Amino acid sequence: MSIRSTINLVSAQARYYSQVRQNNLAFLQFQASSGLKHQRLSDDPIASERLFSLKRTVNSLDANKAVMDEVESTLNLSVSNLTEAHQIVRNLQQISIQARQADDAELPILASQVDDLLGRLVNLANATENDRYQYGGQNDKTTPYVRNPEGDYPPYLYQGGNEALEVTISENIRMDIYRPGQEIFGSLARGETVFVGETGAKPGAGTDSAKIQGSLQVVHSLTSYPGGSGVAAGTDSVNGDTIIGALGTHQLNLIDTSGTGASGTVQLNGGPEFNWSSADDNLKIEGPKGEVVFLDTQGIAAGFSGAVDLVADGTLSVDGGVSTVPIDFSNNQLLTDTQTDDVTNVDSSEIVRVGSELIEYTGTSDLFSTITELKNDLLNSRGLVGKQWDQSLLRRGQDLEGHANAIIETVGEQSVSLESLVGLRERNRAYSLEVTQVIDDVEGADLTEVVLQLQEEQNLLQYTFAVTSSILSQNLLDYLK
Amino acid sequence: MLAFQSGISALRANQAALHTVANNIANANTPGYHRQQIRLTNKQGFASGNLLLGAGVNADSIHRAFNRVVEESKLENRSALSSVNEQLAIYRQVETVLGPGQGSIHDKLNTLFSDLRTLSTEPDNASKRSIFVDRLQSLTREIQTVSGRLDNLEKEVNRQLERDVDTVNKNLSDLFGLNQKIRNEQSRDRQPNDLLDQFHQKLNDLNGLIDIAVTPSEKGGYTFQLSGGTFYFDSNDLRIEKVGEAFEQTSIRIEGREIEVNVTGGRIGAFQELQNSGLPNLRSRLDTLTNQLLFEFDRTHSTGLPPGGEFRAITGTRAVSSNSGPLVETSAFQQLQAGSLFVSVTDNATGERTLEEIVFDPATQSLDDLAAAMNSIPNLNTQVSPQGFLSVFSAPGHEYDFAGRLPTSLDLGGFSGSSIPGVSGSFSGNENDLYTFTALGSGTIGVTDGLQVQVTDQAGAVVGTLDIGSGYEPGASLDFGQGVSLRFSSGTVFGGESFSTPMVSQADETGVLAALGINSLFQGTSPATIAVSDRVATDPGSLAFSRNGLAGDGANIDRLSDLQNRNTIGNLAFEEYLEQINIDVAQQVSLLTTEQTNLELVGNQIDQEIDSLSGVDPNEEMVYLLQYQKAYEASVRVISTMDQVLNELFSIIR
Are B579 and A8 an interchain contact pair (Cβ–Cβ within 8 Å)? Predict the structure, then answer.
């Protein structure tokens, strides 16, 4: 710089530096007033880039928190509802135990209680939150359980979604909020199929698809008498014989006491002796267990005495006789309900008599079917006798135990979700706080520094004015006389 | 009498000197004024006897205190600073327009994604849907606003450029006039200081508009160097012109000569850079962001389902420029690619749903081809308007969708057993696939021991092996992962027989639905035309948040949410891309601010340099004033003394 400076220059410098100082003061005023370090992105592009990332993280964490709050509220409500449902199921279980000791007068009262509890459970299963069904899965706008207009089983039809309504809590973490009702109140794992009856039918080896309850009809079709005894089926045999069995399952002990085929005695399966004559074409005889066959003894070979193995064929039906299947006495016969296409596997190898079997497909009843079964058993609507009734109540109690466990399992899962949610939220909060602090560090103004700088800038401005004034006050004119 | 002559010459010279000082003081604050100094020389003396006597003093010349090198630096600085100032002013406006504050695109995009997260907990909530649509509209309006502001900036820059070109032409004319006068004066061997000051002041002003330099000419006056030394002129007919309008590449040419001038400095240099590069670059990035935003959101939305389920009739919101040309060339979206488009048609009466695959290549196939392919699907019809819009509608009693859901009945082909298989669920894989189900062994479902079915993907990899024999409940669903389950009714299967079905993750691999605006979230194709689709705007219930049509299903919300973190533009997500634009502008502003400060400091130094030489210091002039005053007084005294001497001499005669 040259040593020669003019007033113009002094003036220009004063203007320039006072502008600079004023600008700096204005910026410091912004910092002090807003608490922010930067007014515009261009004040510090590098810090701004970092702030973008940090603020995006905070926004994402805020969104996580909002979702977590909603999920927590929903899960809390659900846990509360299911805990109540669980208690009701436990009450029903108690009733099933109590009923086994109750007298006939108490049973209708217990049935009425069961009905009330069923109503409460249905209400809980149809519980809503903000007009959304809590147990409707993804179909949360449709009432999950509605009365079945066509009968008792199932008493309520599930109309909800099959998939849970899942929500993303945070990256890679998803939670079910609205579980499908059928996962909670639906059937349990399929158990062994139970036949209640005297026909000798047993569950087959295959896996059934029929559910809840059913019946098996074992109907006689033909009894044949192989060998040379000459005995034949009586005229009422087709409809009247009650025996079913492969060759040798049932046996006649035939004695021609006349030696001419005119008369003698006959026993079925070692039961009581019946007299026969060559005039009988429809002789009814009974076995030791009440089994019945009708015989035609007109053609008995003279002098025949001995055992006669019978073959008693029949048919099976699981759809009330709409469709029948000949009994093949195998260990697995596949029977189809033509109305539902459900199949039942039957071990027919030990079927010995006609009749009807009540079938229970254990584990396949939903909670409401189980409760209805309990109510019906309390009223003994199936006409079970003695041990059958007792066993049935026992099974209802076991089923209720299973349903109670299923509910409490869901309560447990949702409680775990809640617990996990609390942890997630705490981590979310802590992380959010941490990032917010970093943001404050990056964008927040250091007020102490601002104040000091403010003072420094004020001083410099004052110096600028003072020095300029001082310089301009020195003028040669003052010395000219 | 010689002493009289000397005194008179001294009086004249000092009077001129005093006049020069007075002129300096008078112009102490005149911009562009250069301090003037008088040059005094002694007059040629003469011999008188053996003496050589002086003849007095001459005011030889008055010259300007002028340093050409420093003055040229000042011109360069002025040109550069002016350019930086203008760029900075515009970029500061851009920074404000695009800034990330409240109500900005960035803020609204972020809010939109946050709302999506909240919606995922309650996809069918009417209030939340309405709010989401409001957010969408707010975002589109902001994009339009920003686009409009950038448009206005570009128009303003163009207007300024036109005005500055006119101003340059006027100033050039003035400058040439001054140059002519200077030349005339110099030809008369006169120093035209005031003209030169006016000339250089005008030149300085001109450099604020365009970078122009001058070199003294041998013929007097100056020659001109416009923009980097490419052209020299010494005429008075030079004019420049702007070629190109707003939103176009602009060039500056010598009028009538088709010669392009590469202007780098001054306001014109700044405006030309902004119009040709800076602002179009920003606009291009905003276009890219908007285009990709529209494409990705619409591609996802178009393959979703509203709570009401499928569609009966939709007319696309985006037209193609030609119905018969390749779609990639006729659509506004270059992202289109070859692939499959899956269409489901549902029979309302039976609930039976088919899944049809259209293989389409937008690089070679047209809208007409697509319409024809869709028309070939049973119970689906299309219509293409002359304006290039596609309408898709179903036959009576049918509905359609593009969600790629699994069909209700499978094409069993050679699968001849009495058992009827079925699949259900929503495929959660990342890419479309074709799954093949092969029976391993023959037997009866639910009965035969060890009976299994193997699931393989298109590449032949085994996805799973499922037991369907003893222990399997006929009709029960077997989950084999990826969200899909398989079931077999009771009956028989035969070993080795198989059937296949497509597993659809991306129902529209091509992107044609988005390009044509079928079931789209948005309409429009650019920042200026972006808007929420009329269907969605008028009925938030038509937001396609589901993948399976159930009210509570928000699978498509999750896919839309995923866009927040997906690298959709190069290796950046939407918000990151927007942030990058902001950061780039901020860095540009920061750089220009630094450059501005530096140029101002350099300018100050140059001004000091110039001032130290050419500035008028009144105190200094006062000293000169005293000096010449004293000299003048002394000269008067000399004359007076000579007068007394002569009076004394003449008194002898008297």
Answer: no
Q: DSSP per residue over B362-387, as a string?
A: TTT-BHHHHHHHHHTSTTEEEEE-TT
- Alpha carbons B168 and B115: distance in angstroms, whole number: 54
Does residue B533 have a pLDDT over 70?
yes
User: From the CB of residue A170, how many other CB atoms can be counted at a distance below 10 Å?
Assistant: 19
B110-148: string of b/e by CB count within 10 Å (b at 16+)?
bbbbbbbbbbbbbbbbeebbeebbebbebbbebbbebbe
Taking only residues 342 to 381 of chain A, the set having a beta carbon closer than 8 angstroms to any beta carbon of chain B reads: 342-343, 345
Q: Which of B551, B593, B617 is closest, CB to CB, to A4?
A: B617
How many CB atoms sit inside 10 A of residue A286's CB? 16
Q: Which residues of chain A does B551 touch, with a Cβ-Cβ cutoff of 8 Å? A: 138-142
On whether any CB of chain A is under 8 Å from the CB of B122, the answer is yes
**Interface pTM, i.e. ipTM:** 0.82
- Say how many C-beta atoms besides its own lie within 10 A of residue B636's C-beta: 14
Contacts of A332 in chain B (CB under 8 A): 447
Whether A6 contacts chain B with CB within 8 A: yes
Q: Which residue of A has its CA nearest to B601?
A: A16
Nearest-CB residue to A67 (from B95, B121, B425): B121
Token pair for A183? 């996962």
Q: Locate the chain A residue with the closest alpha carbon to B546.
A: A138
Tokens of B510: 């091509």
Question: Closest Cα of chain B to A280: distance in Å?
Answer: 47
Contact A211, A364 (CB under 8 A): yes
Query: Is B107 in CB contact (< 8 Å) with chain A?
Result: no
* Side chain identity at residue A302, one-letter code: A
Residues of A in Cβ contact (< 8 Å) with B426: 163
Q: In chain B, which among 459-478 make CB contacts under 8 A with chain A?
A: 470-476
HSE at residue A353, side-chain half, CA atoms within 13 A, is: 17
Mapping DSSP onto H, E and C, the string for B2-26 reads HHHHHHHHHHHHHHHHHHHHHHHHH
Provide CB contacts within 8 A for A431, sequence distance 6+: A61
pLDDT band at residue A1 under the 50/70/90 scheme: very low
Report whether A444 contacts A37 (CB < 8 A): yes
Separation CA B302–CA B308 (nearest Å)? 15
Q: How far apart are CA B293 and CA B568, in angstroms?
A: 8
Nearest CA to B527 among B326, B177, B344, B289? B289
What SS3 state is found at B340?
strand
- In terms of average pLDDT, the best of A350-354, B219-223, B408-412 is A350-354
Residue A173 contacts B, CB cutoff 8 Å: no
Band (A67; pLDDT cuts 50, 70, 90): very high
Q: What burial class does residue B610 get, using C-beta atoms within 10 Å of its C-beta: 0-12 exposed, 13-18 middle, 19+ buried?
A: buried
B480-509 burial, b if ≥16 CB within 10 A, otherwise e?
Answer: bebbbbbbbbbbbbeeebbbbbbbbbbbbb
**Collapsing DSSP states into helix, strand and coil, what is residue B187?**
helix
Residue in A48, A59, A74 nearest the CB of B114 = A59
A6 interaction partners in chain B (CB closer than 8 Å): 28, 611-612, 615-617
Q: ∠A219-A220-A224 over CA atoms, to 5°?
A: 160
Q: Do A2 and B444 touch (CB under 8 A)?
A: no
Q: Look-up: residue for tokens 């969708």?
A: B401
Question: CA-to-CA distance for B146 and B143, rounded, in angstroms?
Answer: 5
**Helix crossing, B574-614 with B279-302: angle to 10°?**
170
* Tens digits of residue pLDDT in B591-648: 999 999 999 999 989 988 898 889 998 888 988 999 999 999 999 998 899 889 888 8
Contacts of A345 in chain B (CB under 8 A): 446-447
